[in-house]
Amino acid sequence: MEPAPCRVLHVGRETHDTFTLTLEVTPEGRAEFAPGQFSMLYVFGVGELPISISGDPGVPGRLTYTVRVVGRATEALARLRAGDWVGVRGPFGSAWPVEAARGMDVLIVAGGIGIAPLRSVVYHALRNRDAYGRLIILHGARSPKDLLYRADFRHWNRQAETRALTTVDHGDMRWRGRVGVVTTLFRYVRLVPERTIAMLCGPEIMMRYVCAEICGNHRIPPSQIFLTMERNMKCAAGFCGHCQFGPYFICKDGPVFSYEKVKPLLGIHEL
Amino acid sequence: MSSRQEGPIGLVDPPSIGRLISALERRGWLVAGPTVRDGAIVYDRLQSIDDLPRGWTEDQEAGRYRLEHSGDNALFGYNLGPQSWKKYLHPPEVRLLEASRENGLLKILNQAEPLPRYAFLGVRPCELEAIQVLDRVLIGDRFSDPIYEGRRKNLFLIAVNCSRTAPTCFCTSMGTGPRARRGYDLAITEILEGGRHEFLIEAGTAQGAAVLEELHPRKAGPDDSGLAEKLTQRAANQIRRRLDTESLRDLMYANWEHPRWDQVASRCLSCGNCTMVCPTCFCTDVEDTSDVRGERAERWRRWDSCYTLSFSHIHGGSVRWSVKSRYRQWLTHKLASWIEQFGGSGCVGCGRCITWCPVGIDLTEEVRAIRETPARASTRRENRNGEP
């Protein structure tokens, strides 16, 4: 499976270590994606890496990714400018259950850059506002300078039946918002277990605490909770073996899993 | 497993094996098979019968491999060397991509190289099964690997049934040998008994039958088939190593935490030898390179091993940082999660991982130890320090 060359339309800085890349998909590529899916982005001569799509599934011909700079390949992605080219394979993987969520309240819980693949869900839900109940977005970041999509959050809070709350682990001199891990935001929301579907993305430890919170204190059944897993990934087609998580290949069985499915594996150290 | 592929059967003399090699070459196949090199039986290009390891056998045990003279003229008197056929079907190194960049424009250059058409001569029954396992992994699931598929589809497979076994063999536990039951074009049993040296050849496909006919075989009677059956049965009876596969998947899943993992980790060097010699281990890594001018780039795929730290590396570090977790990943994948992923075990009982482990770790012994000692009470993190 060869990458399709796509042109960079825009590179926008989000925070000190994150940026958002928008690509124009050429006819060889596939622009359609379901929220939650990812692409393999190839930077010429440097490498290929899996990146979740963070854009609006309702906008045709564009693919948008929000990336955090963590190594050589992401640094090379960050150096791209409008007019440059990248190779794109995909989209791959499972999607957030946006169809199953119809008629329900959608609870989104994100840690750090975990908000990126979930932003596609928010776009989708707001585009089909009547199809969904309340939209609750809880986002935790390490510090105020790590908060992503601030303009989006302001916009979301102005939408009907939508609440978007943020918190930071550590504030700074100017921070007047909430301080605490993301689970502390649950005191501000009321969840109706039978009509809530939860979608989680963030560090594994954060997701384990959030699952404990919403299963234990809010009585949402594990079958209504979905989360994304992350592992090293090279091929996205189940051949390289790197992304295995117990019996699952994150690339083709995931990255979105129901909590019910992965619950027994989540607590196993170094799996 | 009792039913065998039905097809023409014939008897040939030893020189006919040389004629078999030329017949295949005439038909456009590159013949690969066992030959002696660097003190081991390896698979390489065969050009004549003289390339075969006539008169050689092996002494194998956990962590030990020596070539020895067999004292007879057997062409297939050995069992298994370190290499498996995956080196041809799933090459250790292969270029995935070549790209160019001119004036900023990225171009993916198609690299349709002509693929070799291989005939494998001397495929042991366990290895024939290993090829079936790789088929399920690389072409039988949601995606197909074109590199494997291209090499696989034109293959001519000549199995050689085992009339002797190595102490490391446990194919009878995995139901894969010592007699080939399916998936071959030709299956050979070497008969070396009471002054007789002949080869009983069974054809499993039409193209196999056509090649067999070209050798003008002598008609084989029920006695000959019976003798061949007896020889492989005798080999089966020699096998002492056992892997109890009863509820093996459940056993492994119930023992993510077991004291034996710490014990084996204290011996395991995490060298990855077992994954390199395994005929079904398929994991790969990729490497990207570019020329100094930044105009041409390549992407190469190489065999990788789940025993390396880099294998599970994500930003922030490796997921499997301990040797214990890496050995557990390998064994649990091979024997348990593989079944869930691909509908069958990843182990064919060839015993290579036992022979080529520098410290002689034997997976059959590890499974027995896990089976025989009760699982430790759950040591999940929730019980360690109160995390969910």
Describe the structure.
- The complex is a heterodimer of chains A (271) and B (388).
- By secondary structure, chain A is of the alpha/beta class.
- Chain A has two domains: 4-92, Beta Barrel (Elongation Factor Tu (Ef-tu), domain 3); 105-228, Nucleotide-binding domain of ferredoxin-NADP reductase (FNR) module (Rossmann fold, 3-Layer(aba) Sandwich), CATH 3.40.50.80.
- Chain A has six helices and 15 strands.
- Chain A has helices at 72-78, 115-127, 150-157, 204-217, 250-253, 259-266; strands at residues 4-15, 18-24, 38-43, 47-52, 62-68, 85-92, 105-111, 135-141, 162-168, 178-179, 196-201, 225-228, 244-245, 248-249, 256-258.
- Chain A starts with a strand and ends in a 5-residue tail after the last helix.
- The mean pLDDT of chain A is 96.
- Chain B has helices at 15-26, 86-89, 125-138, 146-153, 171-174, 206-214, 222-238, 248-253, 259-265, 273-277, 323-342, 352-355, 363-372, 381-385, and strands spanning 9-12, 30-37, 40-45, 56-61, 64-69, 93-102, 105-109, 118-123, 156-160, 186-193, 196-203, 218-219, 284-290, 296-303, 313-314, 317-318.
- An eight-stranded mixed sheet of chain B has the order 3-2-8-9-10-11-1-12, with helices on both faces. In chain B, strands 7-6-14-13 form a four-stranded antiparallel sheet, with no helix packed on it.
- The model of chain B is unreliable at 379-383 (pLDDT under 50).
- Chain B folds into two domains: 9-238, no CATH class; 248-377, no CATH class.
- In chain B, 45% of the residues are buried.
- Chain B is an alpha+beta fold.
- Helices cover 32% and strands 24% of the residues of chain B.
- Chains A and B meet through strand 6 and helix 4 of A and strand 6, strand 7, strand 13, strand 15 and helix 11 of B.
